[in-house]
Amino acid sequence: MHQFRHTVLRAALLAGASFSLAAVAHAQTDAETATPAAPAAGESEGIVVTGIRASLASAAKVKRDSVLIVDSISAEDVGKLPDVSIADSLARLPGVTAQRLEGRDQRLSIRGLGPDFSTTLLNGREQVTVGDNRGVEYDQYPSEFFQNVNVYKSADAALIAAGISGTVDLRMLRPLDKNDRILAVSLRGQMNGMDKLNPDGERYGYRASATYVDQFADDTLGLSLGFAASQTPSQNERFNAWGYPTDADGNLIIGGAKPYVQSNLLKRYGMVGTLEWQPSDNFHSTFDVLASHFEEEQRLRGIEFPLVWGTDVGVSDVTVENGFVTGATFSNVYGVQRNDYNKRKADTISLGWNNDIRLNDRLKLNVDASWSRAKRTDFLLETYSGTGYLRSGVSDTVRVERQSNGLFSIVPTLDYTDTNVISLTDPNGWGYNGTTAVVQAGFLNRPKFIDDMKSFRANLVGDISGSIFSNWEVGGNYSRRKKTSAYTSYFLCPTGGTDCTIANGTPGSAPVPQEALLGKNVSLDYLGVPAMLTLDPLYLYNNVLDAVYDNRPSSLVRDNVVKEDVFTGYAKMTLDGDLGGKPLKGAIGVQVIHTRQASTGTISNFSNGVVTVVPASGKESFTNFLPSAQFSVELEPGFFVKMGAAQTMVRPRMDQERINQEYNFNLANVGLGSDPQYSPFSSNGGNIALRPYQSTNIDLSIEKYFPGGGYVSLAGYFKNLTDFVDPNNNIAYDFSDVLASLPADIRNQIIADGSYIGLLKAPANTGKGTIMGAEGTVSLPFKAFSETLDGFGIFASGSYTHSEVKYGSNPTDVVTLPGLSKWVASGTAYYEKSGFQARVSYRYRSSFLGEVAGLSAAPTFRTAKAEGILDAQIGYEFQSGPLTGLSILLQGKNLTDQPFVTYQNGDKRQVIDYQRYGRDYYLGLTYKF
Q1: 923 near 188, Cβ under 8 Å?
Q2: Backbone angles phi, psi at 266, to 5 degrees
Q3: Which residues contact 487 (CB under 8 A, 6 or more apart)?
Q4: Cβ–Cβ under 8 Å, residues 702 and 713
Q5: pLDDT digit string, tens, across residues 573-622
Q6: How far is CA 126 from CA 114, 457, 546, 701, in A?
Q7: Other C-beta atoms within 10 Å of 707: how many?
Q8: Is the overall model pTM greater than 0.85, yes or no?
């Protein structure tokens, strides 16, 4: 029989690989979870509940037993979270939403606050990120590696590095929790509903994983290992509008457009391991390691159309509805063809060693040491082509009309595939190096980020008898975080000159080489452009274009290092007793946090055509006190009231703490008077003296758990925010020190009118506000109503959030918080019995302020349209016979084909971004030995 199983497994895996073009997928194995669920009422102890029902029961147990207000997701099996990714699963929890980037759920918002206001832990340890700042991009963590994920929404003194909005704790499997050896392998194939949009893109992908768990030395030594590999393609039909100025009649009209088709391919390889040793009840040691490497390639092709904001563009045949131009013909348009290529490489490693030591019957010591490091490098390549340098070639006439979905159709008359007309050039003469024009036929950004954190923690826990207090705990944590940001960029121009300038011999254009043609031209027919010239941007970069270092003042002062040394001490008392005959649990405590933060970087000065860059450094230290208290009272069996009150904080974005400043001098402002906003001097940068955001939180949760399984809960919360960071803060600054570098006549004019007082832009803690909301959850197995409904159930949640935040610089305007959707809802209906499983999930979020990539990949914020996303899956696990241990799964994601849409000025007609990703389909096979 054993040999037969191996033969069947091999055949099944080969069949799956053949069906999905070598597709492989994540592990979905054993039905045990980190916290085994108790059998539901009426079920025999011998019946094993598996899959989603076991996952929901385990998550409910975590929620019920916790004094903190927490929501949880648990693996349905070893290495099998309920969804394609961690972020997908977390987005189904009450008050949690995910923002899609490149078609994947990557960033989380909790209770109306964006990813920068929460903290992500791995096995209780704060983690670094491959992102630009603190917010974790969950792509860096393969979901196969985690047994459960907890989202803490209230704070505790022992919860180090808690966020204002919440704390996400990713928990790996513990091998000694398992009773026997486990070996599981899984393969899954992926197909996008849209065919690949670029000829050098991919439509099919795969995911593979293997999990091994075993125990040795009389079950005192445990080992778990996990490996995962994936190749995930995605497609993206993109439209971007430059903006909507008003025409001569006061009607809003599109300023320009930048449509693309984009093909992405994400490759990720990961490994996780845990060694657990418990030779006696007095000693327990656990060592964890997680390593992940991913590479993402993006191929983007499209045409930028300067319309009403173009130079000498004519407008005719205009149609208008309610003050908005819905159709127009634009003449004298010089389109800029784009053949771009982006590549990101990122490596993450995390090590942690935890030791629990019982010193005597009443005293325990815990010591934990950890290190995590993330390194990311980007290669962001843009190449341009058109009809001639600086509008010297043939112009185009374009008809633009607004469609019912908010997109604009763009129908040109020029053939953008004709190499007799199209050349490699700077069609509109946009290139400028800070002092003179350059022939910018392309541009290259090469940023690099390294995020490193080392932590050491120790705490003592002592038991108390004869009191309502059950134990006391004191501890301390030290962490050092260092984030290095380095930027390099280059102008790309036709070969023949020395510095990309016409004056030094650079030609205005270069012919398109035949070797760069891919053979099949890309179509933008979803907007009305039949085809565009499709080139290999890497060939152009390596063989055709010269790269000249970008030494603009704004480019020279981007490199920086931010360091944070954080010393945290805490003490708390744990309650476990009765209150009026009712079971009471809780804790009261306080954290004392001393921070030393420092930054090194550069400051630039640009005046009279001369750029000066000087090194700069700064440091700051401060101390915060964070008290907390939380209580849980069981008023009736299974009926809990939980309350929490705490002062919490979260640190600003790391790029806001940088010392860098970019000084600018605008000659056109000389003589405009002494008002600082019209001064010729200005500066823009960070602020090393920034303090953390502060929040005073009150939380209340009412939870009812049913004997037959399931629960309902209703929670409310209030957050009073202070020291809120205003990223656009300006202060008056005396620029007298740089007057000496100016010509005498200009210097004397500035002194005479007092305009040497200009504006220095640097973030400051000038804001304050409130956030309040409510969230409800229902988890019901229908067996509680009737035995005939055994296997059916629902899990649903909804939340409402209201916020009011104002900056000190403009106290009359209410700020829209990034990531805040007022209304969020999700629901899952499922059936699972006798190995068969089916479920449908839907999630909705109202409009919100989303962070997207702006100019040169810099983050920018725009209002995102409300969206609803439908996912579904069906599967079967063989529970008897020769195929026992084999399961199959079919999944569909984004079945509503919901686009991601942003708009501006609160006007949904003013669409800025429109991105359609298509549907994704997955077919998987899993075998558990």
Answers
A1: yes
A2: -105, 120
A3: 445, 446, 447, 448, 555, 558, 559
A4: yes
A5: 999 999 888 999 999 999 999 999 999 999 886 555 466 788 999 999 99
A6: 18, 12, 44, 26
A7: 11
A8: yes
